[in-house]
Design goal:
Helix content is about 80%, strand content about 0%. The chain is built from 6 helices and no strands.
Length: about 180
């Protein structure tokens, strides 16, 4: 699967540029995102749970904007334009990326409203709650560190991909 993704993104076998490695890691997270979105949507339909349906929709939208960003990154990377033109092309895509981020925020707001309105009265064992919280905080902290470090790469699309990871990490914290 890794070789398929490397060929699809037109990356060299040994990925030397940090931007390309970040795009590769984001592409590797797509199958996991598909699995999570489909699982939550199917469980929501089977159990008639609006909470799971909205949560599945959230992951589906997050996955789709991430895939759109990766496709755009691939097109810009494959072009023979100078670096300044590539950066301008990435910045032009940021409007669509911002709309995608706003859509994620809207679905997340609906998700929070459903949790507040219907209540989410799930009791966990203390050890399970601590492990879930540890995973959520680790995910959020690593996403924030990646976002801060990505600003030196001069690639707005990579920064956008990292911002999507922060949104995913925040969701993990809210659900804890």
């Amino acid at each position: 699967m890794l070789n398929m993704i490397i060929r699809w993104l037109h990356l060299p076998v040994k990925v030397e540029h940090r931007r390309d490695r970040i795009a590769l890691y984001a592409a590797l997270s797509v199958p996991v995102g598909i699995l999570m979105a489909v699982t939550k949507l199917v469980m929501g339909i089977v159990f008639f749970s609006s909470w799971l349906l909205i949560f599945g929709l959230y992951y589906a939208i997050l996955l789709s904007v991430k895939v759109l960003s990766l496709i755009r990154y691939r097109k810009i990377r494959m072009s023979n334009n100078p670096t300044s033109a590539k950066i301008r092309a990435e910045q032009a895509f940021l409007v669509l990326g911002g709309l995608g981020y706003s859509l994620i925020g809207l679905v997340f707001g609906v998700f929070c409203f459903v949790m507040y309105h219907h209540g989410y009265d799930q009791k966990f064992n203390l050890n399970a709650a601590l492990v879930i919280a540890l995973i959520g905080f680790t995910k959020l902290i690593s996403a924030i560190v990646g976002l801060v470090r990505s600003r030196h790469l001069l690639s707005p699309l990579i920064t956008l991909l990292k911002a999507y990871s922060v949104a995913d990490g925040m969701t993990a914290i809210v659900l804890t």
